[in-house]
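User: Show me an example of a complex going from sequences to structure tokens.

Assistant: Sure. Here are the input components:
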Amino acid sequence: MWRGDYLFLCSNLILKDFRLRYRHMSLGVFWSLLNPIVMMGVLTFVFTIMFPNGIQKYPVFLLCGIVPYNFFTVAWTAGTTSMVENAGLIKRVAVPRFIIPLTAVISNCVHLCIQIGLLFFIAFIFGIRPNRAWWWLPFVWLMETFFVCGLALLSSGLYVYLRDMRYVVESLNTMLFWLVPIIYDFSAIPQRFIPIFHYNPLAALIFAMRDVLLKGVAPPNSLLINLCGVSFLTLGVGFFSFQRLKTRFYDYL
Amino acid sequence: MSVIVCDHVSKKFQRHAAQRLLREHVTTWWKHREHVDFYALKDVSFEVKNGESLAIVGANGAGKSTLLGLICGLAKPTTGSVAVNGKIAALLELGSGFHPDLTGRENLYLNASLLGFTRRETKALFDSIVDFAGLADVMDEPLRTYSSGMAMRLAFSVALNMEPDILIVDEVLAVGDHAFQQKCLERIHKFRSAEKTLLFVSHNSSVVTEFCDRALWLDHGELMMQGDAARVVAAYEGQPILSESV
């Protein structure tokens, strides 16, 4: 039905999110940096002074976990609530529905870029320099974005019918903070649980980041294949379930 | 050629659609759910030919907005089919997609992209849209500083400049000052003489009879009457008490 310019529409929706977020903030983009800096500071204090763990370059190590985690939780939550928040649009304009959760996720990439900038800056201070393995970073981030898009499509569709979906997402996010290796290292995971972490794209992303930034090596192939597989699978499942769910959005919004 | 064909269209809503919490789904899982259905539209069939203008009249809750929603492709009919042939610009509600904190310019771009303009078209038409709305001085002010009439002018101007094949207007002319209303009416006349199709919902019978050749009268989702606009409007206005008592 709708035969418009997808790119133009997406860019306008993303710009809208960006403008609304930063227009009334005197410090603007700085607020995106505040949260990871505070988290990094507090956790570094706790885990190098109170519970020393002997991990080298701990602030960089932490940020490799915090930045992907922040992106994941914020983008997923924003994607989940996007359909209901844009109910006015959905009920009045025949734009393709899936655009709404997708742009909610993608506009968080702007945030993400700022935070990745911070990560690179801190890494630079700790004497880490780019090498060839860094070319893997855009790829793993792209996979992660696909994964979040898939999840957001699924959860935003369900949220229209089940308004407590949001609390499920929020609880899962809190759980993930501990179940994903943000403050601890891969080596701390007992052998029998390792496969679970291998198939978790968020954990895989954090491992990949640490391999590239801290060890300067490319992530292992098995990890990349898992990350790819799970991300595309999630995107596919999300897209098809969204197509099923969307037929009755009009009645429920 | 018919640009809109509605063939035995019914739209059913379930009253328990309010059931939107997990708790409600769980606690009623094993119970036989009483589906309290109601039909927003019952077996409505009509056609609109190219260049025709059709008015839809009826009391509140008669199913007018649901019908327009189906035509715009916002929802699918429960039974029957809706076929539309051509580019639609719908003004279903004032400034859907407008955001008060964005400036007039930003809202114009956003709204244009929602309606399906490309970037190039939007740039090319920008000036004429702003001119028509008469808002050239305030385009860089946030929309929340606009009066509701000014916001409406912007929305209407974007939709009219889209050069749609089918224009759907849902009772929006009521806002806007006299001068702008005149401008809109003129534009709609021009639109009509260009052999474009107009779908018009209004409670203002003089506007309906002025613009529309034909009219549909909906009542509680049923098509009561269709035909010559003046006759349908007369019939609709002649029996307001009857439709209330049903």
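The lines above are the inputs; the final block is the predicted structure for all two components together. Residues 142 and 195 of chain A are 22 Å apart (CA to CA).
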